[in-house]
Amino acid sequence: MTARSRASWLGWDRGVVVLLVVTVLVGGRVSPEFGSATNLGFVLADIGEIFLVALPMTLVIMTGEIDLSVASTTALAGCVLGRVWHLTGSMPLACLAAVGAGLVCGAVNGFLVTRLGLGSLAVTIGTLGLYRGLCYALLGDSTVADFPAGWTDLGYSSVPGTQLPWSTPLLVVLALAFGVVLHLTRSGRWMVAIGQSAEAARFAGVPVARVKFALFALTGAVCGLASIVYDLRFASARPDAAVGLELAVIASALFGGVSIFGGVGTVWGVCAAVLFLGATRSLLVLRDVPSNALTIITGGLLLASVMVPVAAARLGGLWSARVTRPPAPAAASET
């Protein structure tokens, strides 16, 4: 990717932050309830799973790969949580099992991509169906809805003295951790290098396969965390959970400035994009807009995040070529 293209993407994520601020200001004028502390808590709770999974997805896409199985992985980890709770009666053990199940799912994806050399798009389309099928193998058509009240309270109650859901500290800590890793560590520089040119990174001594495998496994583990947040928020574990999560996660990552080609992106841009998606969803609900409109908007954001920066880079290249084009030679004077 050219320097001009990189600059275009880095300007894009700043624009997302501006768009988020404008959305909040306009939303406050359109609906008085939009800016309330209660609605803020609702927005943060509503985007919890998207926010969590978007963080590792950012790193995966940064390396030029993608994981379409995150929704099925989240659902499967949630089903494991419900199953282990029924078998043991221990919620801490069930939560550990959910994270472990997510880790295994992510590791399977990573193994197929890095060890067998298969494309991540094809692999994760396959595991998307496989993991969803395993959800029904574990629970059938039943739903686990008898979690302890003390645990489900964490899913929909607020931090004392605030309107913020209990998932907020987890979101903040993980966002800071992922931001530090990507932008301030050698591992983050490796991810950028792999996304820009995996072959060049390999010749420079970067362990490309090991980094990609770790990121797929990490994505699965975070999906396990997201399944806990999801199951406690809805006080149930069911095999059809988190349907459509992958679309919202990928749309948020790309709309937040992560290049679909890899090598360019910021964590804070993705965080702003997820918050923008949540604010838009809340505003639609408050204005009684049909829920399927959110799917249309999400798809539109996904298309815009891919098309607009590319179009801007091409227009910039045409303008630069026009400005730097040497003047035509003057016609020879007649004698």
Explained architecture:
By secondary structure, this protein is an all-alpha fold. The chain has a single domain, classed as ABC transporter involved in vitamin B12 uptake, BtuC. Helix content is 75%, strand content 0%. The protein is built from 14 helices and no strands. The longest helix is centred in the last third of the chain and has 33 residues, at 292-324.
Distance between the termini: 52 Å
Are there runs of 5+ residues with pLDDT below 50, and where?
1-10
Q: Please write the string of helix (H) and strand (E) elements.
A: HHHHHHHHHHHHHH
The quaternary state of the protein chains shown equals: single chain
Return the CATH class: Mainly Alpha
Give the overall average pLDDT. Answer: 88
How would a crystallographer describe the biggest sheet?
Answer: none
Specify the helix fraction band: over 70%
CATH topology: ABC transporter involved in vitamin B12 uptake, BtuC
Number of strands: 0
By DSSP (H or I, 4+ residues per run), the number of helices equals 14
Q: Strand percentage, roughly?
A: under 5%
User: Cα-atom Rg, whole angstroms?
Assistant: 22 Å
User: How many domains would you count in the coordinates?
Assistant: 1
Broad structural category: mainly alpha
Shape: globular
- In CATH, the architecture is Orthogonal Bundle
Describe the protein's topology.
Elements: H1 3-30, H2 37-46, H3 48-62, H4 70-88, H5 91-114, H6 120-139, H7 149-156, H8 167-184, H9 186-196, H10 198-203, H11 208-234, H12 245-255, H13 267-286, H14 292-324
